[in-house]
């Protein structure tokens, strides 16, 4: 299993059991280097969904008490295990990434730092769990992702936009 995508690259790979093993390794690194509680670190995104094609980047959601006032100790601990804060601006979220080397050209992991047990946290967990429990919807999502690569010639922003309506429809089922 090789994780990593270059900036604006979109590539899908078949599901790998190694993704779950890597998540557990990274989770342990985070637990060892930060005061974050174990139940506030979850594997999300397509690499956390069984039999799902996925970009070879591991996504984690990490829940904090207040996204507007994250303890510097958390950022320092995440930096010690290789995660750097990105300049990505998203509401109620701070994004960090891990890279293959010091060129910072290829990302292997993302951390989505969000308010614990609030709307975004709950949506991300629900999406993962819903697709893991529903084979038909999982196949629809997988086909949607493959269709983008077949029909479009865009980067990561276009890919994310292409999937947006599907993702929002799943979020809507949570209510």
The CATH first-level class comes to: Alpha Beta
Rough outline: globular
Largest sheet: 6 strands, mixed
N-to-C SSE series? EHEEHEEEHHH
Q: Radius of gyration from the CA trace? A: 16 Å
Which fold name is given in CATH as the topology? Beta Polymerase, domain 2
Percent helix? 40-55%
Q: List the uncertain runs.
A: none
Q: How large is the share of residues in beta strands?
A: 15-25%
CATH architecture classification:
2-Layer Sandwich
Mean pLDDT: 95
Cα distance spanning the termini: 36 Å
- Domain module tally: 1
Category by helix and strand content: alpha+beta
Number of strands: 6
Name the CATH superfamily classification. Beta Polymerase, domain 2
State the helix count: 5
Q: Care to describe what's here?
A:
This protein has 175 residues and is of the alpha+beta class. Helix content is 42%, strand content 19%. It has one domain: Beta Polymerase, domain 2 (2-Layer Sandwich). A hairpin with a 6-residue loop joins strand 5 (93-99) and strand 6. Helix 4 runs antiparallel to helix 5 (156-172). The longest helix has 17 residues, at 135-151. The termini are far apart. The mean pLDDT is 95.
List keywords for this structure.
Beta Polymerase, domain 2; 175 residues; globular; alpha+beta
List the helices and strands and how they pair.
Layout: E1 5-6, H1 18-33, E2 41-44, E3 58-64, H2 72-80, E4 83-85, E5 93-99, E6 106-115, H3 119-133, H4 135-151, H5 156-172
Helix pairs in contact: 3-4, 4-5
């Amino acid at each position: 299993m090789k994780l990593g995508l270059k900036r604006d690259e979109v590539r899908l790979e078949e599901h790998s059991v190694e993704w779950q093993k890597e998540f557990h390794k990274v989770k342990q690194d985070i637990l060892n280097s930060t005061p974050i509680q174990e139940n506030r670190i979850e594997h999300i995104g397509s690499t956390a969904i069984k039999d799902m094609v996925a970009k070879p980047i591991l996504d984690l959601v990490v829940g904090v008490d207040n996204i507007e006032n994250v303890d510097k100790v958390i950022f320092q601990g995440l930096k010690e295990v290789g995660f750097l804060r990105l300049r990505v601006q998203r509401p109620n979220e701070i994004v960090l990434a891990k890279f293959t080397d010091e060129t910072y050209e290829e990302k292997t992991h993302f951390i989505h730092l969000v308010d614990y047990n609030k709307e975004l946290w709950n949506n991300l967990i629900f999406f993962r769990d819903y697709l893991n429990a529903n084979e038909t919807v999982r196949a629809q999502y997988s086909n949607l992702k493959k269709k983008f690569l077949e029909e479009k010639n865009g980067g990561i922003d276009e890919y994310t936009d292409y999937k947006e309506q599907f993702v929002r429809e799943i979020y809507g089922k949570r209510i």
